[in-house]
From TrEMBL:
Organism: Klenkia terrae
Modified residues (S-(dipyrrolylmethanemethyl)cysteine): 239
Lineage of producing organism: Bacteria, Bacillati, Actinomycetota, Actinomycetes, Geodermatophilales
Similarity field: Belongs to the HMBS family.
Reactions catalysed, as given in the entry: 4 porphobilinogen + H2O = hydroxymethylbilane + 4 NH4(+)
Cofactor needs: dipyrromethane
Cofactor binding note: Binds 1 dipyrromethane group covalently.
Domain Porphobilinogen deaminase C-terminal residue range list: 223-297
GO terms assigned for molecular function: hydroxymethylbilane synthase activity
Annotated ranges, domain Porphobilinogen deaminase N-terminal: 5-209
NCBIfam families found in the cross-reference section: hemC
Protein name: Porphobilinogen deaminase
Length: 309
């Protein structure tokens, strides 16, 4: 029997579920046992708003430290939580097929966004959701919240809030899709870059683990994630900026894979937004993202990103 692969994971129910799925996939593909190693991150320890904790990466650095130190061999991240800068010495060796990346509304009495009365309270912590919800012009009162998925949904059950907005993918992984009252149309609320995707990371020089993880990689998901994240990187924005990007993959007329990419930057108060879209071969995913971001910058996105800092 070979030595177990050590997989570092956060302790939240969502992280443990995601890590468990990846661990099972590794064992199924390789026959190697996987041991889950629990790691506490700064984002888990603090109740402060993410933006106060230094924004991007608060959930990530402890896992990466453990990879660098060699105390774990693999780390699983929610891709949208990763900073756009690469970490030298580490590689995203696999991006498994992603879940439906859209946002979901969990509202009292089965209500949809359009059915919530003006003045209804909607909880979310993400500036991207805050901005887009305000831009809908429905008169909703957006309330900043934090905490794990159960804590957030509990605010609706208890009557403290009329609704919360969460990533559908997280609810799917936790088996809580029954609570969703509306899956939000990306035309109204466009998802975060890489939402719903996982990043499975290891050390770049660990050839054995890299080869093993390559079997979990999904090329279509990778192309979508590359396109979406290249929008974010070109805008020089992080996960705390009101930036959204969503790519879909389909077949082009020549039989190759084509990407259809949409992106937006929204003023935090909802008073302004710059939106755009593009399409092209999946092999050009990074370029498509860069060009779309450059177009948004030309049309005034820089001021909106700067204002959110
Ligand atoms: N911001 C926190 C976060 N990071 C990843 C997910 C789960 C969904 C995903 O994998 O994108 C969530 C929760 C949420 O946004 O509701």
């Amino acid at each position: 029997m070979s030595a177990p692969i050590r997989l570092g994971t956060r302790r939240s129910e969502l992280a443990l579920t995601q890590s468990g799925h990846v661990a099972d996939a590794i064992t199924a593909a390789s026959g190697r046992p996987v041991e889950l190693v629990h790691i506490t991150t700064a984002g888990d320890r603090s109740a402060a708003a993410i933006s106060q904790l230094g924004g991007t990466g608060v959930f990530v650095s402890a896992l990466r430290d453990a990879l660098h130190a060699g105390t774990v061999d693999v780390a699983v991240h929610s891709y949208k939580d990763l900073p756009t800068a690469e970490d030298p010495g580490l590689v995203i060796a696999a991006i498994p097929p992603r879940q439906d990346p859209r946002d979901a509304l969990v509202a009292r009495d089965g209500l949809t966004l359009g059915e919530l009365p003006a003045g209804a309270t909607v909880g979310t912590g993400a500036p991207r959701r805050v901005a887009q919800l305000r831009a809908l012009g429905l008169g909703l009162e957006v309330v900043p919240i934090r905490g794990n998925v159960d804590t957030r949904m509990g605010k609706v059950t208890s009557g403290e809030l009329d609704a919360v907005v969460l990533a559908r993918a997280g609810l799917a992984r936790l088996g809580r899709l029954d609570a969703v009252t509306e899956v939000l149309d990306p035309l109204q609320v466009l998802p975060a870059p890489a939402q719903g995707a996982l990043a499975v990371e290891c050390r770049s020089d660990d050839e054995v683990t890299r080869a093993l993880l390559a079997g979990l990689d999904d090329l279509g998901t990778r192309a979508c994630v590359v396109a979406e994240r290249s929008v974010l990187a070109t805008l020089e924005a992080g996960c705390s900026a009101p930036v959204a990007a969503h790519a879909e993959i389909g077949e082009a007329e020549d039989g190759g894979d084509e990407i259809y990419l949409r992106a937006s930057v929204t003023a935090i108060d909802g008073s302004d937004a710059v939106r755009g879209s593009t399409s092209g071969p999946a092999t050009d995913a990074a370029r498509l993202g860069r060009e779309l971001a450059a177009e948004l910058l030309d049309r005034g996105a820089a001021a909106l990103v700067a204002a959110s800092r």
